[in-house]
Write a structure and sequence with these properties.
The protein has helices at about 15-25, 45-50, 60-70, 75, 95-105, 120, 140-145, 155-180, 185-205, 210, 215-225, 230-240, 250-265, 270-280, 285-295, and strands at about 10, 25-30, 30-35, 40-45, 55-60, 80-85, 110-115, 125-135, 150-155. With about 300 residues, the protein is α/β, with parallel strands linked by helices. The structure holds 1,4-dihydronicotinamide adenine dinucleotide and 1,3-dihydroxyacetonephosphate.
Length: about 300
């Protein structure tokens, strides 16, 4: 919706019926209720229509990205692929640029990430994001920026993708804290110690600390740990309050917690909060047990 301010956009949807509904109504009632799609957004269920563009934005659940890239590797060769997905692929431990390089070596990989609810961007509310691309990305930055969408560029793709992926894990933890009635002070402590975990694992994996401190890390951590709009926060809230949660909703932090706990274990890195989120979402531990285990850890320097 936002990019349509810069020129024509093709929106591909897998489901033909849904694509037809969107074409007729020029809206996406299921995912973006109350937003009219601009006239220069053409909606298609035929991927070949989307493959006509040089730059493609990929916005799908992270655990589906490897399969998508693999299935369309030939058509995607030579394209600039901008991942909007936030997660770590559980099968390979890779972020989205790793998957793009592995499946589509002929494509250029970029990451668009940062604090941004789709509903806010679609309504034209002002937002700032990180655009990460290993090569010089000034022209891509200009192509994807709009008057209300301000992009900061970096070459640190690993840092940008890990910031966006990891914050979801701590948003689940923050939601749990609030859902269980443990209070805002506990949430602030958890966000801060969560950020320390993000820095620890991301820098070990090759990220720059400055990237984690920017929009894609700290910025998105603040947003998702404090907003009831966040699906990751909402899942955590349901866990904390012992309430049901719709399993069909995309909650990236569940798989990412598992993937990052595995990565941390293999590198001997301490990530106690991520480990607790994994155990909680796998129902191996109760909320009171998780809180007790975190508080009982040996006292240490900050
Ligand atoms: N919704 C939001 O506010 C934001 C979402 N993101 C990220 O974008 C990614 C997608 O999230 P949402 O769009 O919100 O999820 P969603 O659940 O609303 O939509 C997912 C879309 O992916 C499609 N999809 C599922 N499997 C697919 C496959 N195998 N191949 C192609 N398409 C497939 C679905 O049909 C659906 O259109 C996630 O990684 C999320 O973290 C990033 C920033 C903001
Ligand atoms: O990444 C997001 C906002 O930046 C969306 O967060 P949720 O996936 O938790 O809704």
């Amino acid at each position: 919706v936002s990019l349509a301010e810069n020129g024509p956009v093709t929106l591909w949807a897998r489901d033909e019926m849904h694509a037809q509904q969107m074409q007729v109504s020029h809206s996406n009632a299921r995912r973006l209720p109350g937003v009219n799609l601009p006239k220069n957004v053409s909606i298609t269920a035929d991927l070949n229509d989307a493959f006509g563009a040089d730059t493609l934005l990929l916005a799908m659940p992270m655990q589906r990205m490897g399969g998508f890239l693999n299935a369309h590797a030939k058509a995607l060769s030579g394209k600039t692929l901008v991942s909007c997905s936030k997660g770590i692929d559980i099968a390979t431990g890779q972020g989205s640029t790793g998957l793009i390089h592995a499946h589509c070596p002929g494509a250029r990989a970029a990451v668009l990430t940062g604090p941004s609810f789709a509903a806010d961007i679609a309504r034209g509310l002002p937002t700032a994001l990180t655009l990460a691309c290993a090569d010089h990305s000034e022209s891509l930055q200009a192509t994807l920026s709009t008057p209300n969408l301000r992009l900061y560029r970096t070459t640190d793709t690993i840092g940008a993708e890990l910031g966006g992926a990891l914050k979801n894990v701590y948003a689940i933890a923050a939601g749990t804290v609030i859902g269980a009635g443990l209070g805002d002070s506990a949430r602030a402590a958890l966000m801060t110690r969560g950020f320390a975990e993000m820095l620890r694992i991301a820098t070990t994996l090759g990220a720059r600390a400055e990237t984690l401190s920017g929009l894609s890390g700290f910025g998105d951590l603040v947003l998702t740990c404090t907003s009831t709009q966040s699906r990751n926060f909402k899942l955590g809230h349901a866990l904390g309050a012992n309430e049901p949660f719709d399993p069909a909703i995309t909650v990236e932090g569940v798989a990412t917690a598992k993937a990052v706990s595995k990565l941390a274990q293999s590198r001997d890195i301490e990530m106690p909060i991520a480990t607790m989120v994994t155990a909680l979402t796998e129902q191996k531990i109760s909320v009171p047990e998780a809180v007790e285990a975190l508080l009982a850890r040996p006292l240490k320097e900050e």
